[in-house]
Amino acid sequence: MRAWLVVLALALFANPASASVRIKDISTIGGMRDNQLVGYGLVVGLLGSGDTMRNAPFTEQSMQSMLDRMGINVRSVPLRARNVAAVIVTASLPPLISRGTPIDVTVSALGDASSLMGGTLIMTPLMGGDGQTHAVAQGAVSVSGSASVGQAETLTQGVPTAGRIANGAIVEQEVVSDFGTAPAMVLELKNPDFKTAVRVADAINQYTRKRFRSRAAQEKDLRRVALLCPPGVNPTRFMAEIGDLTVDPDTIARVVIDERTGTVVIGQDVQISTVAVTHGSLTVRITETPVASQPAAFSNGKTVVLPNTAIEASEPKGQLSIVGGTTLRTLIKGLNQIGLKPSGIIAILQAIKSAGALQADLVAQ
User: Fold this and answer.
1) Hey, where are the domains in the chain?
2) What residues contact 304, with CB distance under 8 A and at least 6 apart?
């Protein structure tokens, strides 16, 4: 029987030692995060696929303002160009990035433009949440989608109204960070858990006691671990050394189900109290076989069609199975013995949770 319940880490769960991961992979340094940038600009050079000025008046206003700054007065002239599109430009500003570094930007149409292919973004300031300009974007837009429009049919492939500009923005203002100057730092776990925080602190202290003769970590809560850089040690080198230390992260028992795709993911620590489960379905088949009724000879009658309906109902025998297990392998073996489709297993897991026998969080997407 094909095992539809896919567990990618089943082999790893059988060997707990292989589940160790690096600290750098499960945590980040507090305060070091990306910052979102956004800006409004114009894309020019489109081949008749730009905004319609009547439907997008902000595009016409933007063109007039841009031309005014260039010394061209077109306030009294109605603009009907179809090679310009108003766009929203977004980017992510990485931490500790220096001034003059290029970053990628995403360009998305704001009006009714049908395609941004072949367009060029005019210099657009990108602002952060503080209202200050942190980067300036400009360049040719790369679009992966395409649109072909005819009089009676339109063929669209991908999304032609959005594109990217590789290295299209230059950082003009850095985000101030105290990394390297502050003696204390904080590690923030990506998956908060008290046990994982304690294991991270213990692994760091075990390393620093041997190397620096001191303790450097103290768990604060389920998410944060405070770090104190040893005296005379470069913070960058210190973070590089402890980032390669390995720990066994611990997570809460959880079952994630997706009814749309029939996906079921079961965590390692999920347990089901012993329960008896049966699952069956009633199948009703209706067959229509019309019959033609011929009149007798010389009766002046008419041929009519008489209905002929056959209804069959079948219900397979319900198989009562004992499901329960304290390990992931035992649990999956018990679920596979029922031999159902993913939709059936999802229904069973929901019923087991309602009965109080599923000792885990059930997350439905």
Assistant:
1) 21-32+178-247, 35-171, 254-295+304-364
2) 292, 293
